[in-house]
Specification:
The chain is α+β, with helices and mostly antiparallel strands. The longest helix has 15 residues.
Amino acid sequence: MTMTVINPIDFDDIYNAIILAGVRSPGRVTLSGHDRKIGWDIKKGPGQSGATMTRNGEDPIEFTATFYLATPEDIEAWPAFHGLIDSTVSSTTPKALDIYHPDLVSQRISSVVKGTVGGVVHDGKGGQTIAVKFLEYKPPKKAAGAPAGSKAKKEADPNQAALDELKRLTDEYKRTPWG
């Protein structure tokens, strides 16, 4: 899988926000906890080294998006964006929304629902921080199985010709009276 890397220095504005259902988030966003972990059932044999492993799949990721709202425009835009987040769980049937951020793309996270929205934390300078936990929407698909053993290809010894010649000469020497 080839992935295009976007330079965060030259394209800082792409990293400063998430796009949720086509709407750019207000303020500046920082993501954390978006680590992709593979689940493994590891069974060790009694009195043996090594283990058997069975892949259990990947659990949906819960990650945090922390929004820093520092301008009056950011603070005024927050209630509508908060409403968009809430819309994922506002009806009897939760509805996931598409999400975009380059760091989420690298972890294959493309759809989320609301986990929690933290309370506003004031910085004492007029700014506000709000932490939102999103839960990745990931429908189930078969992903179990045990890994196959490594089958490293045996590379040809670069000295093989010299070793063959040495063996031939050694065998020839053994057939002499001195061998």
